[in-house]
Design a protein that fits this description.
Blueprint lengths: L2 E5 L5 E5 L4 H10 L6 E5 L5 H12 L3 E6 L2 E5 L10 E2 L12 H10 L1 E5 L12 H9 L3 E5 L3 E5 L7 E3 L5 H12 L4 E5 L5 H12 L3 E3 L5 E5 L7 E4 L4 H13 L3 E5 L7 H10 L2 E4 L3 E5 L8 E3 L11 H8 L5 E5 L10 H6 L3 E5 L2 E5 L8 E3 L3 H13 L3 E5 L2 H4 L5 H7 L3 E5 L2 H11 L1
Parallel strand pairs: 2-15, 3-14, 6-7, 10-11, 18-19, 22-23
Antiparallel strand pairs: 1-23, 1-24, 3-5, 4-5, 7-9, 8-9, 11-13, 12-13, 15-17, 16-17, 19-21, 20-21
Helix pairs in contact: 1-2, 1-3, 1-6, 3-5, 4-5, 5-6, 7-9, 7-11, 9-11
Length: 434
Amino acid sequence: MEQYVIKGGRPLEGEVVIAGAKNAALGILAAATMTDDKVLIENVPYVSDTVTLLKAIQNIGATVEYKDRHTVVICGKGIRGRDGLAVDDEYIRRIRASYYLIGALLGKYKYADVALPGGCDIGARPIDLHIKGFEKLGADIDIVTGGRIVAKAGRLTGAHIYLDTVSVGATINIMMAAALSEGKTTIENAAKEPHIVDVANFLNTMGANIKGAGTDVIRIRGVERLHGAEYSIIPDQIEAGTFMAMTMATRGNVLIKNVIPKHLEAISSKLIEMGAHVIEYDDSVRVMADGNFKATQIKTLPYPGFPTDMQAQMAAVLALSEGTSIVTESIFENRFRYVQELIRMGAKIRVEGNSAIISGVKGYTGARLVASDLRAGAALVIAALAAEGVSTIEDIQYVKRGYEDFDQKVRDLGGEMEIVDSERDVQKFKLRVG
């Protein structure tokens, strides 16, 4: 089984280029099936989630062609009507974003049969809001034996939809289905994340009529068909934030390129509050850190608040700060499973309800660690790079879901990190790094 082996203690220095946004890419790749024309998508992150989704899209008859590692051409013309619209294989159940195929296929074919999604185990993430939205548009929804959702409609009609809670997934899914419905749809209490805007912009490039993305009210006027397009996905704010946190934890100096600084404001402001120097440029940010860190308070909130997907990474940094910090998770449950692993490295953290109380320590010590989910795995990499000694991290398949060439990018910044698949390789690494 593959694992990371990391020797910490080196400040990271240099430049790193951020990949396309995974969360935007998953919605956009699904939406590309909504036309029979060819769609060219650039800046696609080459991570296991996008590769898996593209395999699922191929399995229902669409053609998928990689022009290069980050450029994909998709043509949904070959999707085989209702008989071929069952999306159910061992891979698609592993990723949360499989549910985007429901909205895309329901919009285009008025029928979808998709396996219930998987992904990281970070608590209940029900799709009730998706189902309510589809039903408002006129679809009948059944959850059938074997863990699949079947959605069907004679026609989809625009509706007024109020989301009980802010949901990125439901906003994107309903937006896709509504794009090919009859009449006007309004989504109130919509999510405002950058990837919502990116998916809406992509759909509009294909001929959809969507207004208000990025606000809490999205208005969609349905069109009869969508057409081919060319589109480039926005940079990944969470990958960028992860390298920002990593730079601070190792007291480094890194220029993080191919970013939209405005998307990083919540992260940048906390790092500055803790004592880092953050310089914004047009499409990059430089993070510099030395000396001691200050404690702070973080509460995860929907965008433009502090992102839940950066909570674990920031906690790994806060555990090295002076004083007591409190991190409150208001989006997902079970998102503190990484805490026990940080404690194994010497952190002083206690969890009370949906908050983690962090008392800063002077440093981490290398340990054998296990990643419980994607962002937890990233947090453990940050801690390991800041630690004294060698750490190993198991279950790195979670990390590969959302970070492209993570180990290579760290090495390019001077970090000592490799992927190994045996204890013998771990020992070789230890001998080599001394």
